[in-house]
Amino acid sequence: MESSAGPAAGGAPSADPAERRREQRGWYVYDWANSVFMTSVVTVLIGPYLSGLACASAGAPDAASCLDPSLVLDVPGLGFLNLHPNSLYPALTTAAILLQIIGLPVVGAMADHSRHKKRWLLAFALGGSLCTAGLYLASDGYLAASVLFVLANLLYGFSIVVYNAFLPEISTADERDRVSVTGWGLGYLGGALLLAAHLVLVTSADSLGLTTGEAVRIAFASCAVWWAGFTVLAVRPLRDRYGALAARGRSGPGAAMRQFGRTVKDMRHHPDSLMFLLAFIFFNDGIQATIRYAAPFATQDLGLEQGALITTILVIQFVAFAGAFATGAVARRLGTKRTVLASIAVWIGLVGTAWFLPAGNVGMFIALGVGIGLVLGGTQSLARSMFSLLIPRGREAEYFSLFQISDKGSTFLGSLTVTVVVSLTGGYRMAVVSLIAFFVLGGVLLWRVRMRRGILAVGNEVPERL
């Protein structure tokens, strides 16, 4: 049922528990909706697909011949880059991240000046799903697919900022952990289910009379339909609320950027919010780099086949679904901050075991994936919940744009570290283990955050357990 009430001033959650639960269920559905883009498109399918298109454009008929280091991709207007075809995917990913870092502050500030965040969420999600659907048609050359992939990434990131801004508006302080964990867990489940279907489709392409490329394009189209369809269901129960910034009226991009600048300066008066962001940059960097570079570590250092990687990805997705809820249950007993610190300690142990993994041992690699899945969803969802308590009311989208910038920007630090260590050692084993430093530094900074003081400083309610 769609909320028929107009935008409400103040931004506080409904006093009616039934109304809150209805909005929360809608909010969960968007995590279920958007996760398929990151899981199937970004993590598994688009990299090999773009590399195949780029290699064909560079005159390499197959993956083996595309390993020739002398191959250069002719990028119109950017020939000076001398891109190798296999470097197209990471280059596009970097470009998308940089564009998000530039655009997120504007989107966050403008959303906080709007009384209709639902429209923003719907527009970004439908735009992203439309770009993803366009990948189905992008089979001739790499340029169209590259532009669509970057745009879909950009719109996905914008939608997440607006989506996260709803969290303080649909849940009380004591409900925050449960709601954040549930959304994250259902996102992992939705992503895992559709990924399983896509892997069956791609691996059975020959028997279905399809080429691998055709099967991948069908998977792209199904992601677009899933993302768009469930988004429509997600936004219906949500209600627009707005704070003091939106009460002043609309804001253009210039005014939004000036407001964002004032927000950044204002963070000096909220040292615990700032300290939390710094902590998040480091421990999240460790998480993202561990996930990102697990595949080359497995194939190059451990000598594992693609089948083992696919199996491990699915295991991580399904275990992360259960792990998010299990971590949330632990947080209700121990407190959120203690639980996140404990999760970081587990991450340090898991990453440290990478040094001892023997080559060719599929079972131990999958076991490591199980361990990662258990703490992956819980660490990130509880971090989101903690940060939501440190945001002044009415500034949710602005602050969550900083949260997303911290998420995106931190990937550079981990990638740089891995690049340097691989260059020095020739392999990924030491590079992965070196990521322990990010978890240690992030944990120390998080330990220094005084949550109760920070929550009271921004005028929010302190939950029963911290």
Please give the structural blueprint:
Elements: E1 8-9, H1 17-57, H2 88-112, H3 117-134, H4 143-165, H5 167-170, H6 176-203, H7 212-235, E2 241-242, H8 244-247, H9 253-266, H10 271-292, H11 294-301, H12 306-334, H13 336-353, H14 362-388, H15 396-425, H16 429-433, H17 436-448, H18 451-457
Helix pairs in contact: 1-4, 1-6, 1-7, 2-4, 2-9, 2-15, 3-4, 3-7, 4-15, 6-7, 6-12, 6-14, 10-14, 10-15, 10-17, 12-13, 12-14, 13-14, 13-17
Main location: membrane
GO molecular function: transmembrane transporter activity
Subcellular location: Cell membrane
Quick take:
The protein is mainly α and 466 residues long. Helices cover 73% and strands 1% of the residues.
Helix proportion range: over 70%
- If you average the pLDDT, what whole number results? 83
Provide the CATH top-level class of the largest domain.
Mainly Alpha
* CATH homologous superfamily annotation of the largest domain: MFS general substrate transporter like domains
Give the number of domains.
Answer: 2
Distinct helical segment count? 18
What name is given to the CATH topology of the largest domain? Answer: Growth Hormone, Chain: A
Q: How does CATH name the architecture of the largest domain?
A: Up-down Bundle
Radius of gyration: 22 Å
Largest beta-sheet details: 2 strands, parallel
- Structural class, from helix and strand content? mainly alpha
Total strand segments: 2
Strand residue content: under 5%
Sheet with the most strands: spatial strand order: 1-2
Q: Distance N terminus to C terminus? A: 34 Å
- Describe the global form: globular
Order of helices and strands: EHHHHHHHEHHHHHHHHHHH
Membrane topology: Multi-pass membrane protein
Organism: Nocardiopsis algeriensis
GO molecular function: transmembrane transporter activity
GO cellular component, one term: plasma membrane
